[in-house]
Every structure is written in C-alpha cells, then in structure tokens.
Amino acid sequence: MYTNLLPIIHFLPQKPTILPPPPSFSTAPDFSQAIPPPPSFKTAPQLEGNIIGNHKNSNVKRTTLTTAATRNIQRLKRIPTEAKGAVIDQLHLSKVATVYPENVLALARLQLIIALVRLQLVTALARHQLVTALVRLATVDDPQDGPALPLTEKRDPGDTQGLLIDITGQGAPALQNDQKRQKSSRRSPTPPRSGKLDSGLSFFIDTIGDPKNLVYGPNTYAVPAYRRLGYGQVIGIMDNRKIDPASARGGKHLELVKSKRPTNSQRGRGFGLWNSTDENRTLIIPGNDDTFAFSSQAGFVDLGTTDKEASNPAEKTLISSGVDYRSIEGSTNDNKNHPDRQQQDQPAKDDFEEYVRDRTVRYNRELAEDPTNVQNWLDFIDFQDEISKGLDSGTDSKRKSRSAKATLGEVKISIFVKALESNPENEELWLAYLRCGDEVWDTLTLLENWDRALARIPNSIRLWSDYINLRQTNFTSFSFDDCVKVFEDCLGTLHQISRRLQTTMKHDDDHLDERENIESLMVYVVLRLCLFMKQAGYQERAYASIQALVEFCLFQPLVYQMNPAMTLSHQVSDFAKFWDSEVPRFGEANAQGWNSYHAKIQNDETVENMAGKQFENDEGLFEVDTILDWLDQEQRQQKMHILPRRTNDKEQISIDDDPFRVVLSEDVTAILFNITTTAARKSLIYSIFVFLGLPYSPPGVGTNTHFSTDTFTHNDLQLRGFWPAAEQQQHLIGYVDGVPMKEVQRNDQNPFDLPLSYPVDVEELFAKNDHWFSCFGKQYLTTDEEVAFARHVFDQLLTIEKKDDHLAVCYLSFEASYGHKGGRNLAKRLLNDQRTNIKLWNTYAQMEKVHNKPDEARKVYQLALAAAKEFTEEDRLLVPLLYRMYAQLELECGQRSEALAIIMAMATEDQKDTSGPPSQAHIDMAREYFVQQGMTTRHHFIQQDDDTRTTVAYESLQCHALFEYLVRGVDAAGQVYQQAFDYLAENQIDRSFISEKIWISHVELLYHHTIRNDSGFQPGKLRQATKQGLALFPNNTILLGLFIWNESKTWIYNRVQDFFATTLSSDPNVILWLVYIYVHLHRNQPYDVNLVRTLFEEAVGHSRTRSSILLWKLYIQHEVRLGNTEKAQDLLYRSVRECPWSKDLFLFGFQELGSTMTTKELLNLTSLMMEKDIRTRLIIDQEELFELD
After folding, report:
1. Are 495 and 659 in contact (CB under 8 A)?
2. Within a domain: residue 416?
3. Which residues does the annotated region (Disordered) include (predicted)?
C-alpha cells in the first residue's frame, strides 16, 4: 500500500529569516548525560506533512494524506507542457511508514509522503497555468482511498510574487467561497484527530507544524552550518537578502533582511539572474534516495542513512571484521554532491578501508593472545581516533558535533573496560580511562569511577594529582571542606610512600631521585592547598598552613632530626603544643622557631608569648545598606587581616562572628610531613614566594618545567600595561576577515610588559622598567602586613640558609624596591657576614645602578675587584661576574672604550688601561685567554654537579662574547654563542636551564645592539636568534617579547601568527594565551574587538586553561571596558562554574557589575557564594540588603 503523493510548491516569505548561530559552547546541546539510542520503529516520532504558510495570519498544519502514491507519481509526470517557463529541477520523495503486525495491518494509517517540486518560474502566466494544473490533479478523487484534500492558491496581500499551495483546509480569503462548495461535495468526513485502534493502540494526529522542519530538518540538535560570503551575504541565499548588522552585533542569532538591490559583484558571480524571479523559495534540507525503502523481501522498512549517521563504507568494514564499533556521527562529507570528485577519491577510500581492516584484525589477534599488553590496548584505543578522522576526512575536526565526540568516547570506554579486566591495576590505563570518561559521563558516574581507581591503586601519584584538579574544578561536586579533605587524603598517601623511602633507603643514593620526587610533590600539593584556601577567602588558614609546614620541616628540633625512627604522630603531638602556645611563628616579628621553643621547654626556661594586637575601630563597619557597601567593607577587612588571630588580640569583629580568624593546631597538623632532601627543601623555600605572589623563581628551574606553566599557580601574575590606553579605543573600526575598513595607526609594542616567565637572575632583579625585563618594584604586595611578613620570611630563612646566594640576592632586590636607604643598609649588613661573597658585591653595585647612581656602582666594582685579590682561590672563582657586569655598566653608559679596557683587564690580569686603544698583540693575547677559558670550563655545562662552577663556565662564555662584540662586532659575538649552542646540542642538553640562560644573554646582546643602532637596524639577526630560542623554550617571555617587538618593526605579523598557531595547538598554557591576546590588543590602534574576544573564548574554553582565574577576570574586564555588561554578566556565571572556589571572581563581579545587576541576580550570586562555602568576613544579610519579606 502506498500513501498519497501531493506536489507542494513554496516560496520564501518576505519577512526576515532567522539563521541560527554557528555551534558554540553556550548554544550546543548537552550530551554529557547519556547518548541517545539509535532510532527504531518503536521510538521513531510520527512524521507528518509540514507546509509553511506565506500569509502572516495563516496557520501551518500537518495533515495525513490518503491517496495512492503510484497514480500521483504518474500524474506529476503528465504536468501540461503549456506551462512554459516552469522548470522542475529536482524531485525529492521522502517515504516514512510504520509496519504493524499482520492482524492490525488493515487498521494502520500510513504516514506522510512529501513530493517537493522546485520551480524556477519566469512569468506569472506560467505560474498560473502550473498551479491550475496541480490543483486539478490533486482534487481528483481516488476510488480506493477516498477524496483528496482541496488545494488552493494563496497570495500575500501586496505580494505579486509570493505563491504557495495551501492544504490546510483554510484557504485564502479570496477562495473561501469555492472552498465551502468543495466542502459540501466531500464524500468522506474529516479524519479524527485522535482515537484508539482495535488492537488497543492509541493514536493522536499532531496538527501544529514547525516551519523550520523543511528548512533545517526535524533534528533540533543538528545546527545547520553556513558560510559567510562577505558584505553580509550567505552562500546559498539569494542576492537580495543580507545579514542584518543589528542581529550580528547581538550575537544570539542572525537575521536575513531584504536588501535594496543586488550588487554588481553578485551579478558578476551569476547569482542575480535566476534568483530574481524566485526570491520566495524555501530552502529545504535534502533527503536521501530511498527508492528501495519498501522492499517486500527485506521484511522491514529501510529508512536509509541520516545526516547524523556515518555513511562511509569503512564503518561496514569494521563491523564485518568482528569489531563492535558504532558509527561515528559527524558532518556530511563535502564530496557527496560531487560524483567526479568521489570517483577521484575512491582509490584513497579503498586504501583506507583496507588499512582499517588489516589493523583491526591485527589488534584483535594480538590482544586475544596477550591481553596484558597495556601499550597495545592504548594503541588500539588511539586507533579509534584515526578511524574517526578517516570517516570524517572531509570535515574539519574542530567543527565535529559534540554528539560525534560523545559517541567516539563511548566506543573507547567499551574498549577500556575490556582492557581493565585484564589489567586492573595499571596506572596508565586508569588515567586514560578516566580522562576519556570525563568527556562522556555525568558527574556522579565520573566520581564513582575515580573512587574505584583510587581504591584499586591508592599509591598512584598521578591519579591523586588529576583527582585533586577534578575535585577543585568540578562545579557540581565542589565544596570547600570536601576539597580540603581530598588534599589531606592525597598527602596522607604520599606520606606513606615517603616514610618508607626515608626509613629504609635514606642513605641509598640509588633511590635519592625517588625521594626527591615524592617529597617535592608533597610540597607542591601543600602549595596548591594553601593557594586554594587563600583564593576561597580562608587567608588565615592558608598563611597558618605555610607557617606550620616551614616550622615543622625547617626549624625542627635536633632531637627529631637525630632520631628518624620517631613516629610522625609523636612529632605532630609535640608540634601542636608549640602551635597552641601562641608564641611568634615563622614570618612574624621576633619568631625564634620551633627548635628554640622546644629547647627552652626542655631547659625549663620562660617562653614569652606574643603581645596582643590592637586594631582601630571602623565606625562604618556595620553600616551596610547595599551590596556595594558590603563589598567595600569586605575588601577592607580582607586586606587588614591576613595572619591568624591570637586569643589576646582585640578586634572589632568578635571571634563568634568570624571564627575562621583563629586557626587551631588541628587545622594544620593534617598537612605536616618530614623533608630529607635538598631539592624538596629548596622547593619549600621558593614555594613561599609563589604563595605570596613574588616573582622569585628558584635557581635551576627553566620555563619548560611545570613550575612555569601550571594554571593553578599563575593566578597572581602582574600584568603591567596589558590594556591599551582608553583613548586609543574611542573610535571603533570595523574589521572584515582581519582587514580594517579604515586606516589604523600601528602601535609600537613594549616588549617588557609581557607576563613574567623566564629564569630570574640579577639582570632582571635590578633592571629598570623601560630598559630590560624587570622584576624590580613593589607592585607585588599591596598591604603593610604582607610586606612585613615577607621581610620576616627573608630574614628568618637566611639564618638557616646562609649559603643560598640567590635567596640573598632576591632579598636585596625586594628591600631595594622599597627604598634605596633600606637596600643599602641590608647590603652592608649581608656583606659584613659574607665579606668574600662576590655575588653580594655584584648585587650591591647593581642596586646602586638601578637607583640612578652609576658613580657609586663603579666604586663598588672597583672596591670588590681590589678586595678579590686577597680572596682564596675558591672564593675568586666568580671574579668573571664582576668584570662582565662592570663592563656592561660602562657600555650602557656609552663608554665603549672603558668597557673594552675592563674586559681586557680580566684577560691580562692587569689594571684597567684607558690611556689608548689596546694593541693588536694585547687583543690576540686576550682572545687566546678567553678561548682557553671556555674550553676548560664548558664541561661543567654537562655535569652540573656544582652550581658555582657551572656559573663560572657561563660567565666565561659571556665575557668571551662581550670581548668579541667590542673588538670585532656583533657577528663575531654571535659565532661565540653559536659554538656554545652546538656544544650543548651535541651533548643533548640544548633544552636545559643553562642553555636557556645562554639564549637569553645572546638575544640581550642583540637587542641592546639594535637599540644603540651601532650598525643600523638589522631585524634578521634578532629574528633568527629569537626564533631558534623559541623553538627550544616557547614559554620564555624574554625571547617571545623580543621576537614580537622585532616583527612589529617590520609591520609583518605572519611569523608571529604562525608561532602561536603552532605552539598553542601543541602545548597551550596561560602564559602563551596572555601573550597572544596582548599582541592583538596592542598591534593596532584601535584593536580588533571581535578577534580579541575570540581569543579569550578559545583560552577559557581549552581544558588546560579553562580554570584560570586570571584569564576569566581579564575576559570579563574586556567586556566591561566595551560596555557590554550583559555579556560580562554571562561570563561571570561561566567563570564561577569553571572556578567555583574563587572568592575573587565573586567580588570582582560585584565590583564591576553590581550596579547593573537586578536584585534577583545579586541575590542568586550571594546565595551561590554561601552554597559553595566561600568565606565572607561580614555576614551577608540578604533580607536587609535586598529588602526581602
């Protein structure tokens, strides 16, 4: 039995058409819950006719048609040829039917068949002739199936072109009388809208249509792709319609509006001729050829492939080879409508099918023989991605639907389950399994599987690390107390491993690296925990945790150090007494340390308690009438109190009102552990500065390490000059494909404003802001209590770390940034204790230079060189440092001859001779000295067993390059550096820390040479050096900043674009995203707003950087600066979802958007703060603030 076939003619209406936006994170459907089952006959919806009306008041209905299909197909073929000008260019037949059991077959009502006739009409006469013929054809009664519904012609008032066939039964007003006469002559009543069949099945006929089904198809999740042609045009849409600019600025949808006339460019492309007479067409999603859908031999109705199903033959190959592989959903291949191209690509497809078949068979055989081969399982799982790419070879992977990715994830999960059955305790498999499940499972399922993994492998460090990240960032499961418990559980597991290594293998050098790794990892976990508590508002507990761990590890009583068999619980019990005594602790004034307290207790000496603090009362503290008043008081209290409160302190807010001000011993003892390695000890010391937000990185740690790229430890980066000046963005310029529509002014970018990501040495610690990359300044700490705490930290650490020269240099830089007098006094005090410390002498001179006292700096260098002659040979090793820095000082002051005389004095060991230029004999002698010095010291680059001798080798290389630069020029100096780079590459240490420092010194020489304009601007030299350096150290912002600065001079940004495109695709991190956004903010005046917004969106959308508080704040601030408060508010909610622990984001939202939020929005935001346990110092009285009943 066939259903009735009726022709349907439809033209586009004159009102604007709405295009849905392209796929995005905010509009895409959520597939995280479950994957919908494939369509079946039992679950398939009842598809019925869907006709789009043209009149504004007409209703679209769905009607079941009941005439014979075969006869009407023949009738369509006999359309009169007199309707000249009518061209039937395509005939689509869509057949959908439901097959019932034989006993109810006669009662079943077949579903809709739509025959779409696309008409290209030239004249009104031709249209009238064809419509008349179709009406006559459709109203012929069928003797078997009853009468057909009437077809009427319907026109829009005032529209001479719009035309459609209406089968709604309503008809146009002009034809209502004819419709009444037709209604009286019907032989059958209207079919019922609902009822029950004899078989007991109930049915309901839906008569409410969806006009967009014809345009976009019935699948509401399939967002149609479209391509912009430029000038508001969309490919495939007639030339008299363009995108409404107002809708484009709105960002939610695009509207097509009728333009005045086609453009010449459109006519030239051949668009105008055929569209001019067919402007009201409705573009309908193409169907599939289902000629054999009703095959009687199959026993079922073949629906064919849909747009959401893969049609590549490779899928059938996988199934036939015995692999349980579901079809991968993806976008339709662009070649499917090009038979010629398909024929050309067929051999490649056949090769791919054969390749997939062979690989699949091989994996099945090998895994059946050896299911314990974990690498084979992982390769087989990765192979699924390769298959997916092959099936979607014509589709951009970035545009693949989320459902396709989810389906691929389900396929992988099924393979993982099989793999874990044979390898239940393999860490690599579990990690890959859980990361894959993160894209597929809901939150509850994900956490359950994490619990299974940790129960199976409780000692896995990598599992715990990823689990911490998950629990901190997962919005659904996040709460402060639960997250702290996860950190403590992780530390407990790591402590069991470290305790075993410390007790049984403490003197075993073979396991030294293992102990270092475990203990350093524990330090990192504590740092993450302290940053987490600080960012959630629990500052006192965060500072207390740092104080407690430093006291326990670095100021431990000698009795515990000499007795390693003593249990940790006994040590912690004694430490709790020290903590509860409320004596001064680490970082506080007059702190003596736990060891001093323990000695006094053992000797029955009196222990002086810390004096109570008295804080001035704030009269406006409790006068809070609005949310902005609360915000002001909250921020003031947060800056005023950072260290834990003592019981004898007198404050305006009582302990009962804010109990988190007091930190008890039980709040900190759960994170305590012992440290036995030098590396872990150093990690703990410099973790304090990371916690405080100070830029002092540990020595020997380069930018290729996790320390420099960790998202969670880089939320306090200082961004000087990140935003362009406000006046530069007043007159906005439109950009089309990155090309400004008006002339723009190029912006000379400052390379020194990039975020800090480079090894910090004396050059950076005492550099002037506009002369070189600088860490010098007091911009890092904002309150007096923080500054005092940092001073005490430096003082107390130097009492136990006297040999840490880098720590002393950092202290001098910190103190000198708050005043020249304080820095000079500190330098003299440190030199009195370490008279022979050449690094301290050099730091003293650099401090004088940075305060614009070059004469004082010269005196310090001359005094140090004179005193060094009396030093021991070991203490004299770093004398090359004094010569190099002294010569560079003269070079910066424009005294080139003085600089050469100084560097020559190092080689000849004579006094500086400035009577005239050196002779050639002296130059040759000096060159021979530097060559020999380099040859005898460079092996320390490889061994790196002694930091001092590695520094000597580095300084000798620097002096040799500087000598050649002063004598023969920049090319000769470049040859010296190139020899060093070749040596490092030969010994496979070209990515080491010392290699990075050498690259920095090389580009520094080239940059200053360019600034001095000694031989004209030669961008090629600096470009080559920075590009080669960035190939090894892509996260180094000194190399990156000079590379961008050099390219900006040439007005060519292709190399910069290529670098970021490559690097961000392989290793995206916060540093690279910030630099890339900075480049486009300062490249032109004004900048391309949409491009910057796109970069922000990509940054916060990536899995590695979506939890960056800093990126989210900058993104929100960007929209606020542009006045897009609604967009900024949406971003605020998204940021809170990705960073649910960040109190700063909540306060930032109140500060920037509080005045524009409604009462309900403010109420929801404050409620969310309380729900997530974000700590507030002042109680948020919602009833009073928001005047709730």
Report:
1. no
2. yes
3. 144-163, 174-199, 305-351
